[in-house]
Amino acid sequence: MAKQFVKGNEAIVKGAILAGCRAYYGYPITPASEIAHAAAQYMPLVGGTFLQAESEIAAINMVYGAAGTGTRAMTASSSPGFSLKQEGMSYLAGAELPCVVVDITRGGPGLGNIAPEQSDYHQVVKGGGHGNYKNIVVAPNSAQEMCDLTMLAFDLADKYRNPAVVLADGFIGQMMEPVDFPEPVEEFAEKKWAIRGVDGDRMNLISSIELDPDDLERHNQKLQRKYEIMENSETRFEEYRLDDADFIVVGYGIVSRMVHTAVDQLRIEGVKVGMLRPITLMPFPTKRISELAAMDHVKAFSVIELSNGQMVDDVRLAVNGAKPVEFYGRMGGNVPSIKELVREIKRMMRVL
Amino acid sequence: MSVKILGKSKGFYDTYERRPGNNKEQTHYCPGCGHGILHKMIAEALTDYEVAENCIFVSPVGCSVFAYYYFNAGNIQSAHGRAPAVATGVKRALPESVVISYQGDGDLAAIGGNEILHAANRGEAMTVFFVNNAIYGMTGGQMAPTTLIGQKTTTTPYGRTLQNEGYPIRMAEIIASLESPVYVERVMMADVRSKNAARKAVRRGIKNQIEKKGFSFIEVLSTCPTGWKMTAPQSEEWIKSTLVQNFPLGVYKDIAQQVEPLDMSQNLATPARVPKLIGLEQDKVMIDAASIKLSETIDQEIKIAGFGGQGVLSLGVWLSEIGMREDLEVSWIPSYGPEMRGGTANCHVKLSREAIGSPLVTHPTVLVAMNRPSLEKFEDDVIEGGAIVWDSSLIDIEPKRDDIIRIPIPATEIAKELGNTKTSNVVILGVLAGYSDFLDPIVVQQVLPLIFKKRHLLEINLKAFQKGLELGRQLSA
């Protein structure tokens, strides 16, 4: 369809609308506000709802209400705002309501700053709210993927009746790149469980209560089975120059863009390094990482994050001691330069 | 023990299949509890107005958390205090439905204080039933925001005090003080007469919504014999003797007859219409890279820096827009985060034949400096053999380096002569197109009308571009 030069944050909204989203509830926060701005601009043009809620908590609960009617609904925020939404995330997961939540991560803890970090990995990928649940999590690394993965997030959310999070950072949100917008989604599976305000829905119930311990355990087991199915069929990742790599760098989101360039530079120097980029963080490419860890040519891994080392836990679990797993992270909104990454990857490769 | 609701209304399920245990006929409410009576009034009203099948009932957290056991409606159970937000999401998606937010005093007046206030203030077209029994019933008789001074609860064992907990909160009065709500009334569940008045209020609240009149709020002073440690008759007596003294009954606001029905029509675009509506139709300017003559050394990493307001970020966007239409890979990123330190606005642009890794430009091939701090800050970063373009009409120094191509342009001066200093960035764009080999002037001229949609702006900017182009060509020759 149209190729446009747009900000990642705008690509999210256009992608969402193409995916059939007709309800956006949000609360302003830097650096995610542009998503609300774009939603405020475009939602009314397609007859959808944009509403600036009184709080992050209200916004996520409005999404809960809209999602309960079967409407494709979304909200977006940044780290401190996502913390506030955690109550709602737990209820959405418990009531098995599909929706999309965007988190443009910023520096923390507390008020932190508005610069890019990846320090929300734990609170987004591991659940974060109460209970035995998980969010579907996709991690775009370009404006194109801000559109594509938002659309995918809506599909996965509907398919599994589970909230899906687009986890990005201020860089990808602010960055402008050409985006090839796909055709709008025309067909949607019927949501028989939804409350539509018609006679046939009157036995339907949107709820997360199960008073009986056995019932609640069964409900939880059902959720876990769902996550297992996702692991088997929805894991997405990108491999770059891994065929003969001694050393595999794992990074997601904006970091993967930097690592990509660093890998190219190191390859020019003859260093056999490659990159694995998880595109879905939940489900995580555990299986692929353990396969790689078992390969003879792979000597070690390193994980690079804009955090104190959160995804590295999952890589270590996947590698399971088969090979060393190193870590390099920056915090506070600092982003490593390519020179720094090249230096650090070489340093970490001393383990070889 | 349970209370049998006599003469079950069609607004209720025939049997309460969701209720655990063997008793599928009666509610779980305690004998003498006001919830059962209020439920019945609501169910009757929904039946009488023939809207039960269009009703969506939002159950709160509190004793009425299980309202969905009973109401033969679409049922949604919400988090504590959030029912008005959930109801907002429902009503906005389904404006033709009748949405009821049913809440207790802890739910509505404490933890959900913000949600109710703003739903009311927006005038959401919903009906709120606020059950005020001055206590947290379900969680074990703790203090509610409506608990009276001196009243003993499990968390005010010595009685609520002014010093420690303050006065009980009067929600009907607060809601009525807002502009949007159309109907606010406080009723009580005590004797037959007061229950008749309550029934009327319930019906009015629902009728208002059917007539699309906006936000209705009915506060119901209700009994909690268990929480109050009283018998049912004692409870009714206590409402009359004590509770109502603190929460006066009455209609606090009623403008339902004066206001026009809300326009709640929905006009959802079909998917096929969406691209046009959100501006996703392709413009004509898209050039096959093969058809234009660009240098093999096209990969450029450009940093543009200056004061805010000089069009620094825009110039970067235009370069990228042009690059995209030359079928190149492009990326643009504004100064962001720690990059913003130092008082200059700047952006990073990459143009490449290959997929772009990092969008950050640390060592520019071209630096455009629009003010002195930018030149000073970034001069050293430019690669050997790279170019520095600077606005010589604003910058009173020159680059110190001699291993770079020096392009001084009095951009602001030229723009001023053309009659608009804001066009200085377009002058620079012209210079880059005339001097360098990575911008095709023909493409630039095709893209400019997409950027400057107003005719007079386009005219002056085309002039600025032409001027820059000539200057650039002279410099390169």
Properties at a glance:
heterodimer; A: 352 residues; alpha/beta; Rossmann fold; eight-stranded mixed beta sheet; five-stranded mixed beta sheet; 16 strands; globular; B: 477 residues; Pyruvate-ferredoxin Oxidoreductase, domain 3; 2 domains; seven-stranded mixed beta sheet; six-stranded mixed beta sheet; 16 helices; 16% strand; elongated
In short:
The complex is a heterodimer of chains A (about 350) and B (about 475). Chain A is of the alpha/beta class and about 350 residues long.
Word description of this protein:
- The complex is a heterodimer of chains A (352) and B (477).
- Chain A is α/β, with parallel strands linked by helices and 352 residues long.
- Chain A has 2 domains: 3-233, Rossmann fold; 238-351, Rossmann fold (3-Layer(aba) Sandwich).
- Chain A contains 12 helices and 16 strands.
- Chain A has helices at residues 8-18, 33-42, 56-68, 79-94, 121-125, 143-160, 170-174, 213-233, 254-268, 286-293, 311-319, 338-348; strands spanning 3-7, 23-26, 49-52, 73-77, 99-107, 113-116, 136-138, 163-169, 176-180, 205-206, 237-240, 247-250, 273-278, 280-282, 300-305, 325-329.
- In chain A, strands 2, 3, 4, 5, 6, 7, 8 and 14 form an 8-stranded mixed sheet that branches.
- In chain A, helix 6 (143-160) links the parallel strand 7 (136-138) and strand 8 (163-169).
- In chain A, helix 1 (8-18) packs across helix 2 (33-42) and helix 1 (8-18) runs parallel beside helix 6 (143-160).
- The model of chain A has no long low-confidence stretch (mean pLDDT 96).
- Chain B is an alpha/beta fold and 477 residues long.
- Chain B folds into 2 domains: 34-254, Rossmann fold, CATH 3.40.50; 289-476, Pyruvate-ferredoxin oxidoreductase, PFOR, domain III (Pyruvate-ferredoxin Oxidoreductase, domain 3).
- In chain B, 35% of the residues lie in helices and 16% in strands.
- Chain B has helices at 34-48, 83-93, 105-111, 113-122, 162-165, 171-176, 192-210, 225-228, 232-246, 274-277, 312-325, 372-378, 411-418, 424-435, 441-451, 455-476; strands at residues 55-59, 74-77, 98-104, 127-132, 135-136, 142-143, 183-188, 216-221, 250-254, 300-306, 329-334, 345-352, 366-369, 387-391, 405-409.
- In chain B, the strands form 3 sheets. Chain B has a 7-stranded mixed sheet, sandwiched between helices. A 6-stranded mixed sheet of chain B has the order 11-12-10-13-14-15, sandwiched between helices.
- In chain B, helix 12 links the parallel strand 13 and strand 14.
- Chain B starts with 33 loop residues before the first helix and ends with a helix.
- The mean pLDDT of chain B is 92.
- The chains are: A alpha/beta (352), B alpha/beta (477).
- At the A-B interface, strand 1, helix 1, helix 3, helix 4 and strand 6 of A face strand 1, strand 2, helix 2, helix 4 and helix 10 of B.
- Strand 10 of chain A pairs parallel with strand 2 of chain B, so a sheet runs across the interface.
